[in-house]
Amino acid sequence: MSSDVRFTDFKSDKQPTWCPGCGDFGTMNGMMKALAETGNDPDNTFVVAGIGCSGKIGTYMHSYALHGVHGRALPVGTGVKMARPDIEVMVAGGDGDGYSIGAGHFVHAVRRNVDMTYVVMDNRIYGLTKGQASPTSRSDFETSTTPEGSKQPPVNPLALALASGASFIAQSFASDALRHQEIVQKAVEHDGFGFVNVFSPCVTFNDVDTYDYFRDNLVDLEEEGHDPTDYEAAKEVILDSDKEYQGVMYQDETSVPYHEQHGVTENMSEIPDGAPDDAMDLVREFY
Amino acid sequence: MAEDLNWAVGGEAGDGIDSTGKIFAQALSRAGRHVFTSKDFASRIRGGYTAYKIRTSVDQVQSVVDRLDILVALTQRTIDENLDELHEDSAIIYDGERSWEAEIPEEMNAVDVPLKSLAEEAGGAIMRNIVALGAACEITGFNVEYLDEALEKRFGGKGSKIVENNKKAARAGQEYVQEHYDLDHLGYNLETTDNDYILLNGNEAIGMGALAAGCRFYAGYPITPATSIMEYLTGRIEDYGGHVVQAEDELSAINMALGGARAGARSMTATSGAGIDLMTETFGLVATSETPLVICDVQRSGPSTGMPTKQEQGDLNMALYAGHGEVPRFVVAPTSITECFWKTVEAFNLAEKYQTPVFLISDLAMSVTEQTFPPEAFDMDEVEIDRGKLVDDDEVEEWLDEEGHFRAHAVTDDGVSPRAIPGMTDGAHMSTGLEHDELGRRTEEEDERVEQVDKRARKVETAKEKEDWDYREFGTEDADNLVISWGSNEGALAEALDYLEEDGIDIRVITVPYIFPRPDLTDEIEAADDVIVVECNATGQFADLIEHDVLTRVKRINKYTGVRFKADELAEQITAKLSEEVPAQ
């Protein structure tokens, strides 16, 4: 790992096809900077992406990467980290990928507490399929598939994480570049599952949850003097649906990641060129 | 054919039937006898008939037959379920003091042993099955001391007192029968030998094969009858620095295994057909991202929930065709328990050499059957590891394009690209389920699309040329009658040959462990007058393939009752089938 890694080293030479002004640009920049700042380089980093506008991130970043099937990015990241505790794993997805088709995996990845970072680009809309309701869309938000609104309360991903036993819960705003980077960086540095829900506005299909909306309504928890190690305080801000918070809501400083709890330390890619030396013992067990 | 003895213990699920049977099987194995076990069970934790059956001989046994000589019956249903197999020399051990009144046909030998009372005297009613084992020893002239080692293995962890009590219980049963019955006229006398055998089932062989092959990461979701692979690996894979994750579902399990493989670990998942349905979502991704992955399907009766604890070979078409689009893959189907081991090793090599998913197809019958083998059948020195084009740091440099990007999907003559794994300097690259260029980046360029599809197909062609896709053969090579099969039917077929030989019928048996690519059987089929394909499904999925390959019609024997073929039954069916007309072209 070289010490002179710049965040642009994590950039591929493919130009993003995201709409001009998409929140995902800012989200990705913050991720790259956080990775560089924490001493990682592209050759020791694995980025997993799901499907959706967010899923394209693996193409625009430079690292070892897998762009997988819809909703299953977290399991892939889990496998990578188990096999290679020495590798930095970052999983990226959108609100559809993480909280709809992949919701089941989200709950279990959170409770497993695998040492990886999960960045969700939450734009509260399905952008790639051109504007349908997402699990975080407001209940009265009108879309092509919900002309009168979904009439369902949006999923609160932070509360879902809390209920699943999360050790790190944060939220950021793609446009607040510095704070977003800081927050993602804390998630990377966290020993365990670092979850960041990022407000990443869709300028094409969501005219409600816009940059202006977030700028006007964002409350920064750092300015509020919030103590992320205080579980009760975390619960309060996470369940407060009247405000849009930015910052680290909760961090369990005693968190021990899954691989450490299970004594997984080895680089599993290294194996002998025949059966293990003591392999006949496996046979003898069956006497 | 050596003299065999067929023994069973049956009762309600939850009665400890399995462990009782296993103890007896182990004792027989310790005495240098060969053993082949089978299980009848229902998908319930408690309640419902279940039985553990053992066929034993001094010669190798590899099938069940339609005959039961000694039955330990804990319920009347156990007797009723097995009436067809019992005969006038059968002995039925039961507890006359229990509340049920045993109805045993007069011509059979009822052996009433107060199992519960004797067990209580030895230290606890829970040992009543062990009392029955002691009784069985006496009837079969089998030294009760052979049980001791099996009891130590089973109960050693619970302390010496428990072991001693069990030994006492076994002797109580043995002595009771000795005092109260004279069954010498039945003529059961279990010979022993000095041979040392090991006793294991197909799933254990797959698990052991995985460890031998260097599998370090396993992710799975519990499902009958595949779970015991996961249970085998858990607690053992850690000794080699590996890990097993119990995933939240099969969608997750295969994606975790995919992640492990992309990170460079030999990775595997196993499930049954219902789980394959979910995993199918990810097959295409495994193939297009060119990830080496072993996916094991231990088949059970379907469709849907079907008969989850029953035998079937109904997933062959799924293994060949599952997934949208055209997914290159290998399909390997071991035909015996030893082959479960060797084909698992081979599956890992094929996966890495060709960076392609490998389906390892087993079935329920093989997964629950415990069979004896000389330990040399699993000679670990014979295990070879071939990691294909996994590059090292220096070789990475040879595969960079002008701008320094690693060409993870480089178009090569043999279709196989270099493989770099995380941590290798300059090896960083993207992989995706989208069609991609050599660098792994999305493309919809017509030329690049065709190049990548052809390249992936070429890997399979290369493998067809380079690897050995041979069949296995038994019986008389130049016989006019050819029987073809796959999967766990091999054992029953091999033994059916003996029955057929007694009737003067010569058969050539071919079993095929490679479903795709598979051996071309044209010459073999054309040389035979009669061709019969035997399989445990209703539609004849393998027979369809053979007909398609050879452009001919074959006769079919299909069984889909949920119960595996038995050697004697199969011999009868083959005889009957030989006299039938060949189906119209």
TrEMBL record, chain A:
Molecular function in Gene Ontology: iron-sulfur cluster binding; metal ion binding; oxidoreductase activity, acting on the aldehyde or oxo group of donors, iron-sulfur protein as acceptor; thiamine pyrophosphate binding
One BP annotation, GO: sulfur compound biosynthetic process
Keywords tagged on the record: Iron, Iron-sulfur, Magnesium, Metal-binding, Oxidoreductase, Thiamine pyrophosphate
Biased composition (Polar residues): 131-149
Residue intervals of the Pyruvate ferredoxin oxidoreductase beta subunit C-terminal domain: 202-265
Xref: InterPro entries: 2-oxoacid:Fd_oxidoreductase, OFOB, PFO_beta_C, THDP-binding, TPP_enzyme_TPP-bd
TM stretches of this protein: none
Domain Thiamine pyrophosphate enzyme TPP-binding: 51-198
Name of the protein in its database record: 2-oxoglutarate ferredoxin oxidoreductase subunit beta
Upper classification of the organism: Archaea, Methanobacteriati, Methanobacteriota, Stenosarchaea group, Halobacteria
UniProtKB/TrEMBL annotation, chain B:
Catalytic activity as recorded in UniProt: 2 oxidized [2Fe-2S]-[ferredoxin] + 2-oxoglutarate + CoA = succinyl-CoA + 2 reduced [2Fe-2S]-[ferredoxin] + CO2 + H(+)
Domain of life: Archaea
Region described as Disordered: 425-446
UniProt keyword annotation of Oxidoreductase present: yes
Basic and acidic residues bias locations: 434-446
Keyword Iron included in the entry's annotation: no
Protein EC: 1.2.7.3
Domain Pyruvate/ketoisovalerate oxidoreductase catalytic: 13-173
Gene Ontology process terms (BP): organic acid metabolic process; response to oxidative stress; sulfur compound biosynthetic process
Keywords for this protein: Oxidoreductase
Domain spans labelled Pyruvate flavodoxin/ferredoxin oxidoreductase pyrimidine binding: 209-453
A GO molecular function held by the record: 2-oxoglutarate synthase activity
Signal sequence segment: none
Subunit structure: Heterotetramer of the KorA, KorB, KorC and KorD subunits.
Entries under PANTHER family matching the protein: 2-OXOGLUTARATE OXIDOREDUCTASE SUBUNIT KORA, PYRUVATE-FLAVODOXIN OXIDOREDUCTASE-RELATED
Name recorded for this polypeptide: 2-oxoglutarate synthase subunit KorA
Species of provenance: Natronorubrum thiooxidans
